[in-house]
Each structure stands twice: as C-alpha cells, then as structure tokens.
Amino acid sequence: MRALAGVALTTLLSGCASLAPPLLRPVDQAAADFAQRERAQALGLAEGDCAAPGWAMAGRVALSNGRQGGSGRIEWAQGAGGTHLQLSAPVTRQSWVLDVAADGAATLQGVADAPLRDGDAARLLRETTGWDIPVSALGCWLRAVAADAGRFGPAQTDYAADLLPRRIEQGDWTIDYADWQPDPFSRLPMPARIEARRGSNRVRLVIDRWGLE
C-alpha cells in the first residue's frame, strides 16, 4: 500500500474530484426524515448496524491526507457480519486486501510483513498505510445512512429537494453525496459519487456498480 500511497496528488482520478456545493432548495424536513427512515429500513440499516446485511460495490477511489495522495480501484463486500475491502492501483499493479471479521478482528494483506493483524481495522490501516479510513462506519455511510449513534456519536443528515441525503455529519466526518442512481437489483436509490472528509483527510469515490441483497 505504500506504493499506492506514494502516487502523487496530481494523479488523482478526475472522476473523484471534490463535489461541487449543491444548489440548496427548501426541504420538507419531516417528509425527508420519514423517507430516510423507510430507506434505512429497506437497506437493513434501521438500527445503524453497518455490518448488515450483505452487499457489495465496486468503483474508483482517491485518497489524500494533506501530505500525499493516491488513487485506484476499490471493491467492498460485506456478509455474515464481515467486511472484505480491496484497493488496487492499476498503474503500479500494487494492491492490498483488508478482511474484518464479525468480531472486529482485522487482517491486512499486500503490505510488508503481511499478514498484519489488529483488533481495530481503522488503526491498522492508519498505522500501516498512513490513510485514515473509517472502516467500521463506512458500511453505513457509503449507503448514505448514519451509523449507530451510541458508537459513532450523534449524526446530522441534510437532504436535497428529492428528499435523498446530500450530507451526513457524524464522528467529526462530513460525507457528501451526489448523482443518485437506482441499484439494479433492489431498485433503491444509491449515490454514485461520495466524498468523506475529516480535517485534511479525504476519501472520494465514484461508484461503478452496487450490489444489494
């Protein structure tokens, strides 16, 4: 992953550029909150359990931490409480794989001295690669639903005129959403562009494919 981390910021995918500020229009907050609860229920996320249910996505990702940046392909899959995350840089042909078990135990492959293990996936990635990736919460945030408030703190969700989330703020992270499209299987609306940021840390994604149960 150090090879991926070493890619210059100028090579970040143009498709992963920062989202432009949306044109804000009046929103019926009560209607938006109701629609979001219904959507979270349909996704199996009504309780904020980011490891449930099974789902997958694939796309492009750009990472930066204020000092270095990199970009590549991302594949994310969850099932039976576990998470499988693979990042790869086609140009350098470098990749790493993170597997997180249902009990939170994380294993990282594709780095020096692999496999590396830790009980905290985010800490393992941060200490090994330099990237701050909120793995535990991303299972919810990628699907535009707030994570469990008891674990990640209270969340503020702002909506667009179509009553879909345009921003979630939680745990010092701000996550913006744009270009919603229906998942081909469930037909639920899912974001095609996502940007998560905290301080100088950025995770930008362009989703090419969703797969929801």
TrEMBL record:
TM spans (from-to): none
SUPFAM superfamilies per the UniProt record, alphabetical: Prokaryotic lipoproteins and lipoprotein localization factors
Primary localisation category: membrane
Keywords recorded for this protein, A-Z: Cell outer membrane, Chaperone, Lipoprotein, Membrane, Palmitate, Protein transport, Signal, Transport
Keyword Transferase: no
Family statement: Belongs to the LolB family.
Protein name as annotated: Outer-membrane lipoprotein LolB
